[in-house]
Amino acid sequence: MTIILTNDDGIDAPGIRALVKAVKGDAVVAAPVEHQSGCGHQVTTTRAIKLQQRSKTEYAIAGTPADCVRIAITQITADVKWVLSGINAGGNLGVDTYISGTVAAVREAAIHGIPGIAISHYRKAKQNFDWDFAAKLTAEVLADLLKRPLEPGSFWNVNLPHLQPGELDPELVFCQPCIKPLPVNYRIEGNDFYYVGEYSKRDRTPGSDVDVCFSGNIAVTKLRV
Question: Which residue from 38, 48, 157, 199 lies 20 to 30 Å from 212 (Cα-Cα)?
Answer without folding.
Answer: 38
